[in-house]
Amino acid sequence: MMQYVNEYDTPECKTLSETAKKSIRTPESLGLDRCIQCGACTASCPAARFTDYSPRQIVKRVLENDRSVLESEMIWSCFYCYSCNVRCPRNNSPVTIVQVLRQMAINEGIGVEKLAYFLEIGEYLGENGASKVPGAGISNMERDLGERWIGIKRNLEPIRSELGLSARDVRDTHGEVQAILESTGYFEREKWIKARVQEKRIRGFLKTDRTGTSCTEKKKNSGDLGFESDREYTGQEALTV
Ligand code: SF4
Ligand code: SF4
Asked: Could you tell me the pTM of the whole model?
């Protein structure tokens, strides 16, 4: 077993469905074996509406113990809205099954690059005891939500004071959050993920090199899997939640 794999999260079992059922993420009452492939989950899934993603198919592949599902891009399309969880007539929960599959994939080094964007949250949590929206996310929010949102973010403290709210003091957790992250092995896990992402980036560079891409071009793309470049945010201070 890979180091830092949590046996409660992704217990090693003979089949994918056993792992999903035994995982601490899924409830005892999970109706995985009762799935009738009705497709209500896919019908209510916003991700399925815009992509080829299908929670019904994922459940089917899990029931068939098709381990290739771990390599499928599909498992990364869910964004945890839980509509499938609410709509399933058999008390199944494709969303939590997807969470288990993602974790299993990461344990095997598959899809680790998807986590690069989120590493900044963990780093910030460890340092400050609070969560934040990653820099790249802020840029997207600025684009999507526009000037009004930027204005609120810039003037958050005066707005809070006008509303009679105290100043935010998220930095004083007396190291409690850090201690929790330390004792749960978060920092070790983070190190492992960063190393895997870096390996993939290097492999990507080597592959690009063979196709004849110049060094300058490679440099421009170097942020694709990088945490550092994703963290660049030259605008306002990061929003603390
Ligand atoms: S809604 Fe439930 S029973 Fe229907 S296909 Fe999805 S998981 Fe299976
Ligand atoms: S939680 Fe995921 S799988 Fe379920 S409906 Fe939402 S996006 Fe689809």
From this structure: 0.76
